[in-house]
Amino acid sequence: MDGGMCDVVVVGNGIIGLSTAFELSQRAADLRISVIGPPAREGAASVAAGAMLNCFGEATVSTLGDPASIAKFAVTRAALDAWPAWLDKLCDAADGARARRSMRQGTFIVLGAGAAESTISNSHAIRSALATYDEPFEEVVPAEIKGMAPEVNSRPVRALHLPREGSIDAREVLALLERALTTRGVDVIPGTVEQLVISDGRVHGVRLAGGETMSAPTVVVAAGSLTQRFIEQLPPGAVPLMLHGTGLGVLTQRHGVPGFGQVVRTPNQSGACGLHLVPLDDLGHEYIGGTNLPSFLPSAGPSIGVSFNLLRRACEDFDHRLGYSRIHRWLVGRRPVTLDGFPLLGAAPSCRGLVFATGTYRDGFHSSPVIAAHLADVVLERAVAHPYFDHFVPERPPIERTSVAAAIDEFIVHENDDAVMLGIRLPYCVAPESISGHYRRTAEDVYSRMAEPIALLPEILNAVNNEPSECLRLLNPYLRAVRERYGAWVAPRALWCAG
Predict the structure, then answer these.
(1) What pLDDT tens digit does each residue of the chain (499 aa) get?
(2) Is 445 inside a domain boundary?
(3) Which of 28, 118, 7 is nearest to 377 (CA)?
(4) CATH number at residue 266
(5) Is the pTM of this model over 0.85?
(6) Do residues 317 and 142 lie in contact, with contact meaning Cβ atoms separated by under 8 Å?
(7) Helix and strand tally (H, E) in the chain?
C-alpha cells in the first residue's frame, strides 16, 4: 500500500465512517474512496450499540436549553425522518439485499416508581419536547405493555408510546453498509491509522500502524474515541479534547416466555442514557443496555458492579423473567465524547483537506444518515443544507451550556440520583443534604484544581474526580491553550427558549 493514492481517505470503519463513504460514493461515482479500519472493530461504539432510533426519547432538561443543544436536537429530529429512506437506499445499493431484521418502529418510555429526581425531570422534558414539536405519542397503561413484568416495588407509574421511534440492528446495518460500499467500488482496507501526514498547513494522507502510507488530498477522521491522537497533531487548544465513554450491552435470548415487541426504555438518568431493552427478532433475542462511563484514557471495560447493576435493574424495572434469559454475548464499546459533549463535524481551518466526523456521544448511530449527508457536502464543497451544523465546527473553544455554579448544582443532583439507583437508604436521622454537601465539596475541589474552570457535564466532571491527577495532566494544558488561542469566551445564559 505504500505510496497508494486516492481522492478521499476515511479513517474509521464505524457507522459514521462507513455512512460518509457511502454517501460520497452515491454523489460522486468517480471519486476514489478508501475506508481504513480494523475488521474486528474492538472497542468501537458502533458494534456495541443498541441502535435505538430515539430522538424525543433521549430528551432531557437541557435538550432545549441553549442554541447548541437545540441544534443537536435538530440533527436527531432530521435523522428520525431520514431513516426509512436511508435504509431503502442502503439495501438497493447492496445488490438489492434487504436487511434481515430491518427497522422495528415503536418505543415505550416508562417511568418507574423508584425513579430519581433527574429521571423524573427528564420525563417531563420528553413530554414538553413532544408538545413543542407536535410529535405523535400516546399515554399507555404500563401494565398493558407486552412483556412488562417488573418486580412489585419497581412497577412503572407512567408510560408513553412513541410510534415513530424504535431501533435497528447495529451489527446488521454495518454489514449492509460494507456490502453497499463493495458494490460501489469503495476500498475497505483492514488496518489502523496511527498518524496524519501533514505539511505546509494541509493534510496529504495517512500513515498506518505498519508504516505504510496512503496519500489523499482529503482525509475524513471518523475514528470515534481514538480521535484524540489526530487532534494532538493540530495546534494546541484548537479542537476540544476527545474522551472515551465506555458502554456495556448484553445480547440475550429468552427462555420459554415471550419478550417485548418494541423498544422499552426509561428516560435518560444520572449522566447516562436510559436503561433500555431492544428486541432484535421474533426468536427472543434482545439487547440490554444503559451504561455510560466517560474517561480521559481508554478503559479496559466496565466493572463487575456496573455490569451487575445493569442486569439487576433490567430484571427489576422491566421483567423479572429476564433472569432466565441466556447471555449470548457481552458487548463493550467506547463512545466518542468531546469535553463539551458536542460533536466535531466539519473542516479544520488550520489543516486544509482535513475533515472531522466524530464526537457524536450517544447519537452516532441514530444521526448517521444526516451527518453523512452533511459531511458529503463539506468534502464536495457544496452549500451546507442545515445551518445547525455551524455549532459543531471542530476548531472551536468548548461550548458551555451553563455556568460553573449551575454545573456544580447539576453534578450534585446526578450524584444523588446515582446513589438512589444503586440502592442507598438513609436512616431517618441523616438528612439528604449531608450527602449533597459531600458532592458539592467534591465538585468544588475539582474546579479549584482546573487551570481555567469551565462548566462540565456531570459525567465528565465525575471522570475528572475519579482520576484527578491523570485527567488534570491532560485537561489543564488544553484549557490554557484554549485561553491563549481563543481568548475569553463567554458561557451562554443558563436558560434559552426553544423558539
Answers:
(1) 465 899 999 999 999 999 999 999 999 999 999 999 999 898 899 988 888 999 999 999 999 999 999 999 999 999 999 999 999 899 889 877 665 556 899 999 999 988 888 899 999 999 999 999 999 999 999 999 999 999 988 899 999 999 999 999 888 899 999 999 999 999 999 999 999 999 999 999 999 999 999 999 999 999 999 999 999 999 999 999 999 999 999 999 998 878 899 999 999 987 778 999 999 988 899 999 988 889 999 888 888 998 999 999 999 999 999 999 999 999 999 999 999 999 999 999 999 999 999 999 999 999 999 999 999 999 998 877 778 999 999 999 999 999 999 999 999 999 988 887 777 777 878 777 778 899 999 999 999 999 999 999 999 999 999 989 889 999 999 999 999 999 866 544 333 333 3
(2) yes
(3) 28
(4) 3.30.9.10
(5) yes
(6) no
(7) 11, 20
> Is 160 in the same domain as 249?
yes
Residue 388 lies in a domain: no
CB 338 within 8 A of CB 344: yes
Residues 132 and 280 in one domain: yes
In angstroms, rounded to a whole number, what is the distance separating the alpha carbons of residues 250 and 306?
Answer: 12
Query: In this structure, is residue 269 part of a structural domain?
Result: yes
Residue (of 301, 114, 96, 296) closest to 179 by Cα position? 96
* Dihedral pair phi/psi, residue 330, rounded to 5°: -95, 130
Give the CB-side neighbour count of residue 33, counting CA atoms within 13 A. 31
The beta-strand segments (E) located in 169-300 are 187-190, 193-199, 202-208, 213-215, 218-221, 242-253, 263-265, 276-279, 285-289, 293-295
Give a yes or no: residue 50 inside a domain.
no
Decide which of 272, 298, 332 is a domain's last residue: 332
Is the distance from CB of 421 to CB of 116 less than 8 angstroms?
Answer: yes
Does residue 410 share a domain with residue 324?
A: no
Q: How many domains, in total, are found in the chain?
A: 2
Residue found under cell 429530529: 77
Residues 284 and 432 in one domain: no
Quote the domain boundaries for residue 428.
Answer: 404-486
Q: Which of 287, 313, 332 is the C-terminal boundary of a domain?
A: 332
Return the H-helix or E-strand segment holding 377.
helix 364-379
CB atoms within 10 A of CB 445: 11
Distance in angstroms (rounded) separating the CA atoms of residues 225 and 245: 8
CA neighbor of 241 nearest in space, from 297, 302, 198: 297
**142, 254: one domain:** yes
Same domain, 321 and 444: no
Residues 157 and 301 in one domain: yes
